Amino acid sequence: MAFDSVAVIGAGAWGTALANTAARAGRRVTLYARDPTIAAHLASTRENPRLPGIELAADITTTADIATAARADIALLVVPAQNLRHAAAALAPHLVANTPVVVCAKGIERGSHKFMIDVLMEAAPRAAPAILSGPSFAQDVARGLPTAVTLAARDEQIATALVHAIGSATFRPYHTTDMRGVEIGGSVKNVLAIAAGIVSGRKLGASALAALTTRGFAEMMRLGLACGARSETIAGLSGLGDLILTCSSPQSRNFSLGFALGRGEQSSSGALSEGHFTAPALIDLAREKEVDMPVAGAVAAVLSGKLTVDVAIETLLTRPFKAEA
Predict the structure, then answer these.
(1) Cβ distance 257 to 251 under 8 Å?
(2) CA-CA-CA-CA torsion for 168, 170, 174, 179, nearest 10 degrees?
(3) 3-class state of residue 174 by DSSP
(4) Which member of 106, 189, 203, 306 is catalytic?
(5) 189 among known catalytic residues
(6) Tens of pLDDT along 151-203?
(7) DSSP string, 241-279
(8) Do the beta carbons of residue 143 and residue 20 sit within 8 Å?
(9) 0.90 exceeded by the pTM?
């Protein structure tokens, strides 16, 4: 499978970074922006205001015509999780059957409580689904700084071909067929990053942050195994790797939201934080699978207003002592 052309659906910071990445790997790239004004701006200035100082690769074509973008061999669906269904439905009529569509969003759909691959297959059933996730900030990837991620597809041959299509010396995808594991890692880490931000905002110390991240990872692993994920996926780049990144950096919108909550402030990150939408769906899923997730549960309770930050912290610190498992 020689995938020579790539369409990036979504011209935000992450979409622009991935477009540059695919171009760096030698692919012919079309970057789709739903708004014609944005597409024209990118074409003329070769710079996305969301990625200041990063120049769009010279051979990337921009368009506001999704039918034109859909002619590519691969489509990267780079939109927020809550917008993925709409974007996939718009792309679907123009896709050739079995075109790989790579989801590049992390989260669970609000309302339906469905993972991103399930949403994609409902909206674009003729697509060959895949998902890209892992510890990666758009600014780092756009600048060509070394980054490693996980790319999953049902068929290992397709997953391998996709890795070779978009991978390069500085952007290294590792392939797997464990799509559910990749989805769970990306979804759970968003919620745990909010908790990490709260710990930092409350100035509870580096020891508390390390404990929170470790116990949060245990919750991620329990849920992943209950949902049929492989332990090596949860312990890999799309699980533990992404958790480490987003629990330690204010570049993460989820961490920033938690940090503001910890300081008792309002945050503009709430509307942009996938963890904000994922938390209640995650707790419903954990309850359905009979998985104990106290850290994620505390985050959901704080976000819904059921608990204050102080009461949530006290609740976690006064849990009964138990064996580590």
Answers:
(1) no
(2) -100
(3) strand
(4) 189
(5) yes
(6) 999 999 999 999 999 999 999 999 999 999 999 999 999 999 999 999 999 99
(7) IHHHHHTS-TTSHHHHHHHHHHTT---TTGGG-HHHHHH
(8) no
(9) yes
